[in-house]
Design a protein that fits this description.
This protein is 72% helix and 9% strand. The protein is mainly α.
Length: 150
């Protein structure tokens, strides 16, 4: 179980003790955020003329506004992340498909190379056979009459 942290902070010039399971640095950053908002409002003359309740409501509204804007931004980023994740999935799927097609094409190429090699061997055998038959048969048809009558 996580340890409860107690930390003394100053918010709007008043000392408070915050308790929580979050880290001290986180609790300090929350305090700094609230003090920053207060400083932002104090810089405006109109804010300083309001009563304490109205100042508190304005502060709460602005913090809520920041929260909803941040929440909306997170939702946009989450949606963008989902789209990119889906796109990445599609790209990976396409890559796997293309790799399969490449492997099939490489196998076909190997088969065609083997077939070509076998055909080249067959051509050599047939050429050799033709040469051997040509040597054993009539030599260049010298026994022919060459068109002369006897």
């Amino acid at each position: 179980m996580r340890k409860m942290n107690d930390i003394e902070v100053i918010i709007n010039n008043k000392k408070y003790t915050l308790s929580g399971y979050e880290s001290e640095s986180y609790l300090k950053s929350v305090t700094a955020y609230i003090n920053g908002k207060l400083d932002e409002f104090r810089a405006k003359d109109a804010f300083n003329r309001l009563d304490a309740e109205m100042k508190s409501v304005l502060l709460e509204l602005n913090i809520a506004d920041d929260y909803f804007k941040a929440k909306s931004h997170v939702e946009e980023l989450t949606e963008e992340n989902k789209k990119k994740s889906d796109e990445l999935f599609d790209i990976k799927h396409e890559l796997i498909s293309l790799q399969s097609r490449l492997e099939a094409a490489q196998r076909e190429l190997q088969a065609l190379k083997f077939e070509q090699l076998e055909n080249q061997k067959k051509i050599v055998r047939l050429e050799t056979e033709i040469k051997e038959r040509g040597l054993k048969g009539p030599k260049n048809n010298k026994n022919r009459n060459d068109g002369k009558e006897l």
